[in-house]
Amino acid sequence: MTPDHPNRTSDAGPVPDPAGAVGDAVWLLLCDRSPALRARVLGELLGVPDDDPERADLLARSAVDPETRELLATEPADFPHLCLLLCRLGHLGLDRAHPRVAELAERVFAAQRPDGTFPLDLFRTDDRYTMIPLQASVPLRALALVGAATDPRAERAYAWLLDRRNPDGSWPTGLVAGQPGGVPGYRKLPGSPGCRANTQAALAALALHPGRAVSEPARRAVDLLLRRETRDEWALGTETARLHGRERAAGFISLYARFDLAFVLDLASRTGISPRDPRIADLVDFLTGLRGPAGLWEHPVHPELGRWLTLGLLTSLRRLRTADADGTGWTGEGPRLAFRPHDVRLAHH
Length: 349
Known about the structure:
- This protein is mostly helical.
- Helix content is 44%, strand content 4%.
- It has 14 helices and seven strands.
- It has helices at 21-30, 35-45, 53-62, 66-72, 79-91, 99-110, 134-145, 152-162, 196-206, 216-225, 238-243, 261-270, 278-288, 306-326, and strands at residues 9-10, 13-14, 129-131, 175-176, 179-180, 228-229, 337-338.
- Helix 1 (21-30) crosses helix 14 (306-326) and helix 7 (134-145) packs parallel to helix 9.
């Protein structure tokens, strides 16, 4: 494909001319060899619809791209691996319209209990716990990424998850003998009794639902997460690395031990938050300061993922601009609180 439309417009306004940093970045992304990445650039940054011939061709080619074919042929080792596999396929642009993806999604649903959640024993976890919100949010995110968020079976799991919220809108670590489990330092939410990892996981599931993304529970979760005033530059792009198989999705309760600012901005932007929220404005300024001269971000560990990281960040910024232009963005209430966790690079229990 020849990237000959650097100035295609979208509902968020025209993409800047390639002489600017953002325009340069879009141009470079459109030159990437990955059809999945180029298809997402057209759709998410330039507002090109799915039925556009150029984008439709890229979507078709991405389904037979070597990376995608390898994933489609993978047999999941266990339930967590099954959920991650669905996340990775959804990230590359596939959904339940593909027979293999539909089969894998049905495997997830087959494990569901009548109350809507999924058995804890499917996950590697501490046997003392009788409930951990992640047991619903992890499979829900996977299902939502392949277009199954509004399936009635998924909606039952969302209802179960929402019933487990703390009074302040956070999610707990879980229950041990009927009592709340402990929250170690790296998973604390400043000013809240909740667990950051569970709250972030629940938000990751809600933010992908077409209606629940802008609901009060999703926005409240963002408000709580943004209280954590940290700038873990070294963790930037952790989720991108997982979705491309460069890093393992280690642990269960500690699944979101790292505070990946790109992932946090992605989730927040999906809830319609305004860029005028002071915490978002500061986060955007910080991340913009990390951008290279061509408008691309470098992945701190995996240089080959820089363009995927850039796509995610530019998409988040586009959502923020849209909320600002439409006048529909919301601003949070939570204060910014100093936070000093121990070294979470070692927290993968």
